[in-house]
Amino acid sequence: PLRGGKQPRILFATQVQTAPPRIVIFTTGFLDAGYRRFIERRLRAPRPAAA
């Protein structure tokens, strides 16, 4: 999503806490609430177990 004519980019993310898991995302600009919710849902979605 554009904000101020520019699209913010996600630079990197790091897990800062394990119980409960907490992830900090570093970006080039402000992320809209809807996009933050999208990222949260993707991170919370179940994943297949590693073989």
What this model shows, in words?
Pfam families: KH_dom-like. Keywords: Kinase, Transferase. It comes from human gut metagenome. This is Bifunctional cytidylate kinase/GTP-binding protein. With about 50 residues, this protein is an alpha+beta fold. The protein has a domain at about 10-45. The protein is built from one helix and two strands; from the N terminus they run ββα.
What descriptors fit this protein?
51 residues, alpha+beta, two-stranded antiparallel sheet, 1 helix, 2 strands, 31% strand, elongated, KH_dom-like_a/b, kinase, kinase activity, Bifunctional cytidylate kinase/GTP-binding protein, transferase
Could you name the ranges where pLDDT drops below 50 across 5 or more consecutive residues? none
Distance, first to last CA: 36 Å
Number of strands: 2
Question: What is the tally of helical segments?
Answer: 1
Q: DSSP strand (E) fraction? A: 25-35%
Mean pLDDT, as a whole number? 88
In terms of quaternary structure, what is this? single chain
| General form | elongated
Structural class: alpha+beta
Q: Strand order of the main beta sheet, please?
A: 1-2
Largest sheet: number of strands, sense, barrel closure: 2 strands, antiparallel
Please bin the fraction of helical residues: 10-25%
Radius of gyration: 13 Å
Pattern of helices and strands: EEH
Protein name: Bifunctional cytidylate kinase/GTP-binding protein
Pfam families: KH_dom-like
Organism: human gut metagenome
InterPro entries: KH_dom-like, KH_dom-like_a/b
